[in-house]
Structure formats: structure tokens, C-alpha cells
Amino acid sequence: MTMVDKDIEDSILETHFAAARCANTVLPAGLAARMLADADRVQAESLRVGEGALAGAGRWRQLLALLGGWPAMGGLATACAAGVWIGVSPPDFLPDPVGLMAEQNSSVNLLDSYALSSVLPEDG
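Predicted structure:
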């Protein structure tokens, strides 16, 4: 397609869009009211079905439905497993929390520190 063909196509489309914007389309009498009534009926029916399904269910089923059902629980379980995996064996570009805790604990000796005496309350 050449640039001239593209310009002609754009002008034709723009002509049609301008005509559509100028056209005053009116829905047939009562169509909008029937569409809104049907939407209200469907919405009320879906609410009744949802409430009825959860009314007799236990707390775990209600929580499961609130979270999005089993597909959502599968995603949560996967995210949890990935978080544990990354926490236990982090990639090289992330700090190792277990190693950091070991370093902090080995460098601070609370029994030989003067800071421990300032933390403990004095009796008397």
C-alpha cells in the first residue's frame, strides 16, 4: 500500500466517521426500557444465586468463594511456594536473609556487651 492509497483510505474513513457522528440515531420506542429491565432481572437473579450458594456454606467455603474459587487458590499456593523457595534459596542478586541473620548473631555478643546492662531493669 502506497502513501497515496493510505491517504485516500483515511479520507474515506474520515468521511464515514463524520457522517456517523452527525447522524442522530434514536432507539425504537421502549427498547431502552426493555434492555434496562432485562439487565435488572439478570442482575437480581445472579445475586440470588450467589447468596443462595453461600448461605448454607461453611466459613471455609465462603472464604474460598470470596477469594475467587479454586483457580485463585491455586495461584495463591503457587505464589506462596515461590516465596518460600526464594526465601530459602535466593538468587545471587538478592541478599540471603539467613546469612545476614547468622552474620548479625555472630558479631553481636550480648553477654559480654555493656548494652545488655542498659536494657535490663535495676531492682531497688
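Summary: The two ends are 96 Å apart (CA to CA).
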